[in-house]
């Protein structure tokens, strides 16, 4: 406490008696850090006041550290120079005169340039994070985050045991900034490269507390008035907090407006992190509305067109977040010409672009528009011509449908389908983004044949077995649309082992995954009647029946026909009737059960 009083100008806990002070310390409650206290001094305070007595530093260590700090202060005083305005002494590590506030414009007064040099090798930065002081660690993490924008340098972080160093920083650092930025580095490695599991990332987030009001106030001050380095630290800090924690303190209108203002006014080094921060903050509809109303959509679309690879990828991510569950934003993004730019990103050279472009396209266009059936939600291109003929739509909705189909073909003509299919065999995040986009594209009847020709069926079937829940739902949705009225596509699904996997889903699946699986089985069972003259259809139907019967599928279908949702009941009953060869021809009907992904958390 003797370290805090000179800095704060008053005794800490001055209104509490000794017993209450001891109670606070036993429970980890310590005074707020004075703004004038440097990182090394505050680190010593934390080490002295740990709530676990066994973890507190020894008296000998305290004395040695206080001597070192005193010597450091003495050296700074000796090196002090005179302010040009008022002749007061100014320490070499100060940016402003402590008496009159005049900014010191001498380059020698700035932080050591070498300590902030962007070309410092990754191993040296990791060593600084491993062994350096808190201030060294914070500087090292800002630079490591900037290196995460480059695929080669991210790979170097991974290959030089950087993941373990970052994990240790999250788990053991006393600096909230260090914890947040280390998490942000790990998030890049997890989301973009799939080299760190999302489950482990979520577990590490539990080590980090949410932002306090004091921390938010300090960030706002640096965002408004700080120099470039201070602004950069505040931006990545805010972005990391928003990604790691759901916080209402950060998502107020003044912070959101400030970030949108920075989007058009800050330099290129800061822009990419401003874009990321806006994307992370857009985690609910209230913030999406505020961000859009502040004018963020237009500059984000401009970055899609003319930004760096990282700016393009993160702009796609942020636009996807703004469009999620928000029809007005979705239509504004589409009207701004984003779809053609996003289609170009699908064939880009970096994972950041290829992953986030499908994510944004998942929500475009018109992510909130639905058909008048009230049965299921149809974002993206879900209103295909098949659904219009089967169910009917309003005239205004038909106009949007035609525009949406044209937008879908922009993606196809860009040559994106082969790359999306290849992504089904790539990283987990690329698989998820690719299946979502293929699910959307498959609702356009004329595109289904392109998907089949480009080899999408086999990897989609494989994901029914190996994918996570989201990938399975998206894959089943795409297969349901591809299978409609195509005996050759149905046959390929069966030949690739799809029937066994679909029956397994009938037994164990739930929700949209189950509904789509029932629909695919229904399509396969029905194609034998509709295409009885086609070569190979007879054995196909025979095999389908055999698998359904042997694996208990008949029993499951009967149960669904009695106790499922209205759609499940109807489709299960139709499937059973088809298998008995006693049903009417099935209506043409596409299912779109794509699942949305929220990236607070990319």
General description of the model:
This protein has 602 residues and is mainly alpha-helical. Among the domains are: 1-57, no CATH class; 73-106; 114-205, Alpha Horseshoe (Leucine-rich Repeat Variant); 426-602, Leucine-rich Repeat Variant. The protein is built from 33 helices and two strands. Strands 1-2 form a two-stranded antiparallel sheet. The two termini are 41 Å apart. ARM repeats lie at residues 295-337, 455-498.
Short description, anyone?
65% of the residues lie in helices and 1% in strands.
| CA-based shape | elongated
Query: In the CATH hierarchy, what is the superfamily of one domain?
Result: Leucine-rich Repeat Variant
Order of strands across the main sheet: 1-2
**Helix-strand makeup class:** mainly alpha
- Total strand segments: 2
Please identify the top-level CATH class of one domain: Mainly Alpha
Span of the ends, CA to CA: 41 Å
CATH T-level topology of one domain: Leucine-rich Repeat Variant
Please name the CATH architecture of one domain: Alpha Horseshoe
Short key terms for the protein model shown above:
single chain, elongated, mainly alpha, two-stranded antiparallel ribbon, Leucine-rich Repeat Variant, 602 residues
What's the layout of helices and strands?
Elements: H1 4-8, H2 18-26, H3 39-48, H4 59-78, E1 81-82, E2 89-90, H5 122-131, H6 134-147, H7 151-159, H8 162-172, H9 176-191, H10 198-205, H11 213-225, H12 228-244, H13 253-265, H14 268-281, H15 285-293, H16 297-306, H17 309-323, H18 327-335, H19 338-345, H20 351-361, H21 385-391, H22 395-413, H23 416-423, H24 428-441, H25 445-453, H26 457-466, H27 469-483, H28 487-495, H29 498-508, H30 511-530, H31 537-550, H32 553-563, H33 566-579
Antiparallel strand pairs: 1-2
Helix pairs in contact: 3-4, 5-6, 5-8, 6-9, 8-9, 9-10, 9-12, 11-12, 12-14, 13-14, 14-17, 16-17, 17-18, 17-20, 19-20, 19-22, 20-24, 23-24, 24-27, 26-27, 26-29, 27-30, 28-30, 28-31, 29-30, 30-31, 30-33, 32-33
